[in-house]
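Hi R.,

Here's the input for the adenosine-5'-diphosphate complex you asked about:
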Amino acid sequence: MNRPISARPSVSIKAVDKIWTPEGRTPVEALRGLEFDVAPGEFVVLLGPSGCGKSTLLYMIAGLEGVSGGSIVCDGLPVTEPSAERGLIFQEASLFPWLTIADNVAFGLSIQGVLPVRRREIAIEMLKRVGLGDMLDKKPDELSGGMRQRAACARALAMKPKVLMMDEPFAALDVQTRSRMQDFLLQIWRDSGASILLVTHSIDEAIALADRVVVFTARPGRVKTIVPIDLPRPRPTRDPRYHEYRDMFTELLAAEVDRAFAEQEAA
Ligand SMILES: Nc1ncnc2c1ncn2[C@@H]1O[C@H](COP(=O)(O)OP(=O)(O)O)[C@@H](O)[C@H]1O
Ligand SMILES: [Mg+2]
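And here is the predicted structure with adenosine-5'-diphosphate in place:
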């Protein structure tokens, strides 16, 4: 990566705490003193044991949940509410089943006040970009899981987000589809210039995709370490360095998963 050091971060997470206080239950400290930046156009992968607050962090960056302490600043402005500049994609594509995929993609634009003809044009353009140009008038349940996730990407990208957040987007897909979706994602990432924050459980997915991997500790989630992946893309899986990264992440995660288990047993 070769970008000026002075570039304003696209996301800046500053000493962020999050305590969930569900009614009638004991509060849960999900995140503690979390701190890192995402540079414009950077691809950051979040890796950590389940329950360490990764989804919680994405909700807060998306503006769907407030922080309990610290702040999240996107492009110089504190996050206080959702914005079209910050898109979020979940594991199960959350498309409206009663709309065609073209109408699904156009839907978000109608909220932004884009006129109907232009909406349709943008929807077609985005669906072509994700390889679904001949599926415009299909309903989501007529598509495969991988196609639905591509349609969800098209819908998010139509809004021209500066930050695209993806919460285990490929976890439900089979191995072959998953690997093709990773290639596809790298391509649309380059085209869009957006920053991406992607949560995964998969060490190989993290190495395949990331500029930097943020490894979380067990709950309360903190930054355990941040590892830049210093390999060309596509990642050379036979390179000894690839396997060094793999071993390192396996060890880092195992330690945290053990801690998470120990804590659960104690509770
Ligand atoms: N809406 C919620 N209300 C109460 N607790 C929650 C809520 N969402 C998540 N949590 C708790 O916060 C912790 C972190 O959850 P989450 O962010 O989903 O972790 P991850 O995505 O890393 O698996 C967990 O202990 C979870 O039970
Ligand atoms: Mg999660």
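One thing worth noting: Residues 240-266 form the longest helix (27 residues).

Cheers,
M.
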